[in-house]
Amino acid sequence: MTSTVVEYQTVAEPTELKSVAVVGLGYVGLPTALGLHAGGIEVIGIDLSQNRLDAIRAGDVDLIDSDQRQLEKTLHQDFRLTTDSSRMAEADAVLVCVPTGLDEYLMPDLGPLEAACAALVANARPGQTLILTSTSYVGTSQRLLVAPLTAKGFKVGRDIFVASSPERIDPGNVTHTQAGTPRVLGGVTPACTAMAQRVINVLTPAVHCVSSPEAAEMTKLYENTFRAVNIALANEFAEISDGFSIDPIEVIEAAASKPYGFMAFHPGPGVGGHCIPCDPHYLLWQLRATRSNAPLVTQAMHAIAERPKQVVDRLADTLSRNGKGVVGTRVLVVGVTYKPGVRDVRSSSALDIIDLLAAKGAVVGYHDPLAPDVRVTGGSLDSVVEPDGADWDIALIHTVQPGHDYHWLARCPVVVDATYRFDPALFAL
Hints:
Blueprint: E1 19-23, H1 29-38, E2 42-46, H2 50-58, H3 65-74, E3 79-82, E4 93-96, E5 101-102, E6 108-109, H4 111-123, E7 129-132, H5 140-151, E8 161-164, E9 183-187, H6 190-203, E10 207-210, H7 213-243, H8 248-255, H9 279-289, H10 295-321, E11 330-334, H11 349-359, E12 363-367, E13 373-376, E14 379-382, E15 394-397, E16 415-417
Parallel strand pairs: 1-2, 1-4, 2-3, 4-7, 7-8, 9-10, 11-12, 11-15, 15-16
Antiparallel strand pairs: 5-6, 8-9, 13-14
Helix pairs in contact: 1-3, 4-5, 7-9, 7-10, 10-11
Keywords: NAD, Oxidoreductase
Protein name: Nucleotide sugar dehydrogenase
Organism: Saccharothrix longispora
């Protein structure tokens, strides 16, 4: 896909940045807004959900400790929250941080992003810098911002500036913080890149500039497709190792002793959240439109989708070896969030596992101190607050939440560790 060449007369010198509007205050937008505010920028936080804004004001949001402290400080300062999209016209720069998920057919759900960009174009004014941070297909910035802005008479690169800088926020990760993680940035013109860099530099001093928004968009798709392919491979090797009665984690740790040419990925019960299960499908969707294919990526995403079924089959095999079937068996799924230390259950493989077990006739419960209730096919399911391992026939370890006690699992007759790394001795408080 080629970009429309937008002519401009002079490369604008970055001017003083006073205010930034952040559109979408979810797992990306809220930390982004907090990072900008901590950098001395006036922030206008825009989200269409009043419930989300109320939760932010109450501090009832899922953040790492440093961001939670920043939020508590920020709420007493000039940190404006609103559902009014027209307020973005007041800002020197606007960052779009809305979710880009999939529908039930694994097709990109572009509704929130298209709506946010349409509002951005409707409220755009000369001199603004507009940055897409949401992960999407190659050409999103061109189609949703550059083309409609040009149609309105703006000269992109001269009197308004457009760039893509896909987010790199890892929820719950206190090691790789927003400030310490480099960001990729691609502007429509050199002027766009310069104007956008002054914004992104408030969040992190490390900015890797590329030649275009398309290059930045493709970079993010490559990053998460790389992870998806390697996770699928790690899961496959776990199954292969099991067939040889070899511990897959021992093999991974041994391979990781090589100082070059290997990066450790670990098997697990499946993937979830906002990135790995979603982003590669944006690439595959776009390739289908051009009758291109990516067989390796396609197979990896199929393997990832099949992973919950493999976990259920492993549990059924374990029960069979213990002289039991799945029907009527009391199964406790331990942890349902998609990763440790976060409340997020979006696309969590635990939900698929619960549904599959229930469909096979198991009596399924779950325990997760970070997720008091979840929606599954049968309706709402509440977490078992104080489980006793003796009350269940088998426990499936899906997500181990740090700082919580799991000594009670010792009383459970059978435990299947789908993480391959659970050590009960480390979690007995």
